[in-house]
């Protein structure tokens, strides 16, 4: 469904991503795990056209979507869900959700959008209770739910989640990942980028490990979860 | 370092040559205005280009210098040199008092505050007629004198104006290449990082503001004693805007940019007198095009070309 | 006491004009981060084009006014497309001075076209003063206040009830997030200039019957509008309204009660004192720098 | 040497630092770890004077330095670096390091403008010392480059060099190896060890790279939601169940 081929990204003279190859199949949850600064967010931003790539290709359903502007990428149904702080903090919860469907307003009946809105509210009852509240006043976990809900409003085919666990307490992290798993029922393929290796590996089908802009490992998530090297890299535990 | 002083020497020689070749007092006037504008713009470059603090009110400091000189000499018969010195001092104190609260502001708020101060100044000199002569201004300001030598012609004052212009270039050069200059550039880049290296950011911002105001004041006094007549419209916000345009035009973060910017713009505005009715249109067009396509200014552009060639 | 009411009424009139102009500044600022000095020319051209259409082309007001507003909005949009978008530098200072350069250009053009004489537009409905308690008000003042209130309400509805309006607020609030949901930022910037042009032109037209209009009328009005926007908190619509009204009241009360020569001094001194105390304006939020 | 006593800071009602206590001994390397948003950078911002704390104390060498302005903190010989690089991009590499010496040099505006001989002399010695520091960081060949022209890894080094130029006794480093590859990270960690041993500098660092943290530090402090949940040696921390649960995303393995 989505293929990233030999992707490289440079900021000025700094190379953020080297020769990245990843693939996301239909109905899959794939995780990309790596430390701060490893290039995870750059990867997502390049796919959604926020950052221009220097070399390589991004293919979606056999169409080349490399370096298209973000609003075009969104039209294809590829939606980024940024970490929870990137919501419209001064707008209400409902306005945030409506804006998630921004492009649908031009071509679809409003009622259809409100149907989606109701679906989102049933998926996240807490958002319904707070629909007229200013989004900036939500708790961290609620903001993350809002970001996911806003992404779903676009009726996406692919969602790219950037650090959904960022700054959240363990219990909330669990809740967020439960939601993510349920998204599969909505026929959405998911790419998660995470620093929280355990949460990501536990809740995905396959995973790529990214270190300083390079993919260093790729396997089924459960295999990686039991891999000693991973334990060392993310726990700092020395092998005996 | 040597290169700087050699260039300075060349400029001095060129100006001297021009002064002997040019007979028309109109052209001498232009040459003098270039020098005066250079003095103000070099201060602005230090403030805006190096320290990153914009001021849209420097015409007011130019005016405070001119009016202090004029009032002190015409009302109180103070010696012009002493008046000029007092004027610099007065301007410095005013700039200091204004600078402390004003430079806490950032971005558009700083622009608005400096602009507002300029407007307040303009209204006060128009309205406070007893002292300032109101809209008519002050006439009969005495010439500067050394012994019995009086700077009473365009040519004679030229030496004085250019002496101060070159001196202010040296001041700027020394400051930029010093501990203080580096600190100013640092706080322009990041105030937080600068303060975490021990730079007292607010103190430095105020001090550079005062210095640039004093330079404007010197130019103002020279202007008053040169044309011997001053009136309010010279010191309005339009002139403040023109000064910043000169600064951007030459290259804000360069020293030579001050000279090039004031040179080019002073000459351009005089040349535009030939197209009469079209002058403002052409000026606006030149500005828009220059800013759109060489936003780093003439000197900045040349430096960049040099760097690219080296690569 | 009688006079105070009179001053308040005229303060509200000029205040509404400042508020409209300030909103124009704020809308463009929110989309781009710049101070658009061309706003001054929008005001001038609004008034002067109406003069052209009404006095010279003999169109009735209900054609001349909308036509002028449309022309200025197109001019504003084109200015963004042709000049702002093609500027090599995105540095705020450079962009601001580009708008200053353009403003000088258009002012020169206006001088060429219309000359330097002021023009008087007739009031929208008669000149018979109306008595309110013991103050008198001319009908045009009511037109100004009324049209401003309606415009503000319409703008409020636009920003809160339409998806495009919400998208504009979204861009102002968080550019990156706006991009992520698929908003075309360039289109919003363009739109903000069109709205800026609309508001400037409208302000220039409705004030013209009171103050006359000429090729350079926009400069001082624009400056006051900018001051009002800063006073209220740059970028906030509520702030622009409060700032505008406050500035209008300050000026008129200052002129009436203290000294008409120093009315601008009083207004600007208060403005500066306010931002000294609250460096982001009355309704502005202080930003925390992140490191 | 550094004592943090019951430090508290909140932003808009949210507790970023909720009463943190710890001590740092002279000439040691200590690390603060914790998930993103745990308050690590806020803590450094409080110590270095960028934020004012709500309550609590920062004691340095038995002197209260709580809420001093950042430039006053530097005078106490405490210098910091930044997570998002804050090199002075428009200045040369050499000038960056020279700015670093601001707090240990003198002469203000008038002296600088008049360019007196003693100013010249001082400038010359600043330049020489800066070159030495650049040599130590292996950056001397790029002394006249614009700082923005350096690759990321070298900019990180430059920030360290600039901090070292202030002649500090205590360095607060916010993620010194973030975004670096393995070799670069290793180089930085060697430099940090040298700073401790050759220059007798005490180091407190925030870092996500656990290999570096475990290798370098004698003491680790774990922050979670603005609270200190553990403190101890690397082995103690690695085996602390609370830490595993909070930091390592333990809720999903439990």
What structural keywords apply?
heterotetramer; B: 311 residues; mainly alpha; two-stranded antiparallel ribbon; globular; C: 291 residues
Tell me about this structure.
The complex is a heterotetramer of chains A (240), B (311), C (291) and D (254). With 311 residues, chain B is mainly alpha-helical. Chain B has a domain at 27-235. Helix content of chain B is 77%, strand content 1%. A two-stranded antiparallel ribbon of chain C has the order 1-2. In chain C, α2 (39-56) runs parallel beside α4. Chain D has two domains: 1-77 and 168-254, 3-Layer(aba) Sandwich (Rossmann fold); 92-164, no CATH class. In chain D, α3 packs parallel to α6 (152-165). Chain D is globular, with a radius of gyration of 19 Å. The termini of chain D are far apart. The chains are: A alpha/beta (240), B mainly alpha (311), C mainly alpha (291), D alpha/beta (254). Chains B and C meet through α5, α11 and α13 of B and α4, α9 and α11 of C.
Present the secondary structure layout.
The complex is a heterotetramer of chains A (240), B (311), C (291) and D (254).
Chain B: H1 2-21, H2 25-50, H3 58-76, H4 80-102, H5 107-127, H6 129-132, E1 145-146, E2 149-150, H7 154-176, H8 179-189, H9 191-195, H10 201-227, H11 237-250, H12 256-271, H13 279-293, H14 297-310
Antiparallel strand pairs in B: 1-2
Chain C: H1 2-32, H2 39-56, H3 61-84, H4 92-114, E1 130-132, E2 135-137, H5 139-161, H6 163-173, H7 175-180, H8 185-211, H9 217-232, H10 237-258, H11 263-277
Antiparallel strand pairs in C: 1-2
Helix pairs in contact in C: 1-5, 1-6, 1-8, 1-9, 1-10, 2-3, 2-4, 2-8, 2-9, 3-8, 5-6, 5-8, 9-10, 9-11, 10-11
Chain D: E1 2-11, E2 14-24, E3 29-33, H1 40-47, E4 55-60, E5 63-64, H2 70-75, E6 78-80, H3 93-100, H4 109-114, H5 117-136, H6 152-165, E7 170-174, H7 182-199, E8 202-206, H8 210-216, E9 219-224, E10 227-232, H9 234-238, H10 241-247
Parallel strand pairs in D: 3-8, 3-9, 6-7, 7-8
Antiparallel strand pairs in D: 1-2, 1-4, 4-5, 9-10
Helix pairs in contact in D: 3-6, 5-6
């Amino acid at each position: 469904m989505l293929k990233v081929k030999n992707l490289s990204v440079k900021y000025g003279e700094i190379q953020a991503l080297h020769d990245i190859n990843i693939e996301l199949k239909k109905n899959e949850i794939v995780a990309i795990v790596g430390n701060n600064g490893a290039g995870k967010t750059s990867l997502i931003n390049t796919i959604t056209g926020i950052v221009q790539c220097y070399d390589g290709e991004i293919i979606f359903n056999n169409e080349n979507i490399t370096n298209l502007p973000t609003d075009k990428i969104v039209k294809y149904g590829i939606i980024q869900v940024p970490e929870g702080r990137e919501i419209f903090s001064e707008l209400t919860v409902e306005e945030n959700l409506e804006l998630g469907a921004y492009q649908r307003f031009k071509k679809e009946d409003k009622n259809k959008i409100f149907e989606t809105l109701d679906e989102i509210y049933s998926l996240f009852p807490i958002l319904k209770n707070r629909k007229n509240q200013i989004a900036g006043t939500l708790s961290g976990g609620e903001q993350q739910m809002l970001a996911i809900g806003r992404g779903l409003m676009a009726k996406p085919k692919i969602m790219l989640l950037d650090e959904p666990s960022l700054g959240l307490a363990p219990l909330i992290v669990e809740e967020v990942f439960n939601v993510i798993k349920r998204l599969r029922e909505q026929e959405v393929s998911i790419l998660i980028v995470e620093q929280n290796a355990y949460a990501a590996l536990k809740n995905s089908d396959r995973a790529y490990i990214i270190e300083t802009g390079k993919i260093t490992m790729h396997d089924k998530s459960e295999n990686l979860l039991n891999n000693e090297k991973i334990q060392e890299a993310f726990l700092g535990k020395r092998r005996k | 370092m040597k290169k700087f002083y050699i260039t300075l020497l060349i400029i001095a020689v060129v100006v001297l040559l021009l002064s002997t070749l040019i007979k028309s007092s109109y052209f001498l006037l232009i040459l003098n205005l270039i020098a005066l504008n250079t003095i103000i713009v070099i201060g602005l470059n230090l403030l805006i280009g190096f320290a990153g603090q914009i001021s849209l009110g420097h015409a007011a400091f130019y005016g405070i210098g001119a009016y202090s000189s004029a009032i002190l000499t015409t009302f109180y018969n103070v010696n012009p040199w002493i008046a000029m010195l007092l004027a610099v001092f007065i301007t410095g104190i005013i700039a200091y008092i204004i600078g402390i609260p004003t430079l806490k502001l950032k971005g558009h708020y700083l622009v608005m505050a400096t602009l507002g101060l300029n407007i307040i100044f303009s209204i006060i000199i128009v309205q406070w007629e007893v002292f300032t002569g109101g809209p008519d201004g002050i006439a009969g300001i005495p010439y500067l004198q050394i012994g019995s030598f009086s700077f009473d012609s365009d040519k004679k004052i030229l030496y004085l104006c250019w002496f101060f212009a070159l001196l202010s270039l040296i001041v700027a050069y020394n400051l930029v290449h010093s501990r203080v200059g580096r600190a100013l550039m640092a706080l322009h880049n990041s105030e937080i990082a600068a303060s975490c290296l021990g730079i007292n950011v607010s103190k430095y911002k105020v001090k550079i503001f005062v210095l640039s105001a004093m330079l404007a004041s010197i130019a103002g006094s020279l202007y008053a004693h040169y044309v011997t007549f001053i009136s309010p419209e010279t010191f309005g916000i339009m002139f403040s805007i023109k000064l910043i345009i000169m600064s951007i035009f030459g290259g804000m973060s360069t020293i030579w940019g001050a000279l090039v910017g004031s040179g080019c713009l002073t000459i351009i505005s005089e040349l535009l007198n030939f197209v009469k009715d079209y002058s403002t249109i052409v000026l606006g067009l030149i500005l828009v095009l220059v800013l759109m396509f060489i936003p780093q200014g003439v000197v900045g552009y040349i430096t960049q070309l040099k760097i690219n060639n080296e690569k | 006491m009688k006079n105070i009411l009179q001053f308040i009424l005229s303060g509200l009139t000029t205040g509404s004009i400042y508020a409209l102009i300030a909103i124009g500044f704020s809308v463009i600022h929110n989309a781009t981060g710049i101070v658009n000095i061309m706003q001054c020319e929008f005001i001038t051209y609004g008034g002067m084009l109406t003069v052209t259409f009404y006095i010279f082309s003999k169109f009735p007001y209900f054609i001349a006014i909308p036509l002028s507003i449309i022309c200025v909005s197109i001019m504003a949009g084109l200015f963004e497309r042709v000049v702002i978008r093609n500027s090599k530098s995105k540095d705020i200072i450079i962009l601001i001075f580009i708008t200053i350069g353009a403003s000088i250009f258009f002012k020169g053009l206006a001088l060429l076209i219309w000359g330097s004489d002021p023009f008087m537009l007739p009031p929208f409905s008669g000149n018979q003063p109306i008595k309110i308690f013991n103050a008198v008000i001319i009908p045009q003042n009511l037109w100004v206040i009324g049209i401003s209130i309606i415009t503000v309400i319409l703008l409020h509805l636009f920003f809160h009830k339409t998806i495009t309006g919400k998208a504009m607020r979204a861009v102002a609030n968080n550019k990156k997030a706006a991009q992520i949901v698929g908003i075309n930022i360039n289109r919003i910037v363009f739109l903000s200039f069109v709205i800026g042009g609309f508001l400037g032109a409208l302000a220039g037209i409705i004030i013209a019957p009171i103050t006359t209009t000429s090729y350079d009328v926009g400069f001082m009005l624009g400056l006051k509008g900018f001051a009002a926007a800063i006073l209220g908190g740059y970028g906030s619509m509520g702030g622009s309204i409060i700032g505008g009204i406050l500035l209008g009241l300050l000026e008129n009360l200052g002129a009436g009660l203290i000294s008409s020569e120093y009315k601008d001094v009083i207004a600007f001194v208060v403005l500066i004192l306010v931002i000294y105390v609250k460096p982001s304006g009355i309704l502005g939020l202080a930003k925390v720098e992140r490191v | 040497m550094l004592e943090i006593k019951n430090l508290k800071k909140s932003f808009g009602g949210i507790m970023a630092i909720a009463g943190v206590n710890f001590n740092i001994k002279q000439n040691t390397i200590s690390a603060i770890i914790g998930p993103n948003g745990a308050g690590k950078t806020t803590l450094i911002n409080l110590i270095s004077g960028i934020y004012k704390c709500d309550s609590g104390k920062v004691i340095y060498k038995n002197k209260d330095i709580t809420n001093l302005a950042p430039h006053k903190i530097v005078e106490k010989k405490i210098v910091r670096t930044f997570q998002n690089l804050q090199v002075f991009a428009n200045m040369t590499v050499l000038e960056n390091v020279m700015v670093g010496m601001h707090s240990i040099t003198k002469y203000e505006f008038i002296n600088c403008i008049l360019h007196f001989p003693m100013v010249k002399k001082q400038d010359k010695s600043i330049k020489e010392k800066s070159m030495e520091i650049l040599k130590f960081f292996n950056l001397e060949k790029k002394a006249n480059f614009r700082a923005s022209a350096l690759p990321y890894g070298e900019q990180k080094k430059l920030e360290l060099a600039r901090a070292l130029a202030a002649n500090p006794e205590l360095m607060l480093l916010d993620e010194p190896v973030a975004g670096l590859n393995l070799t670069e990270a290793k180089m930085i960690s060697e430099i940090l060890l040298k700073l401790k041993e050759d220059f007798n500098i005490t180091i407190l660092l925030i870092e996500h790279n656990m290999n570096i943290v475990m290798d370098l530090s004698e003491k680790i402090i774990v922050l979670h939601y603005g609270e200190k949940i553990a403190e101890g040696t690397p082995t103690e921390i690695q085996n602390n169940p609370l830490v595993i649960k909070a930091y390592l995303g333990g809720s999903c393995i439990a």
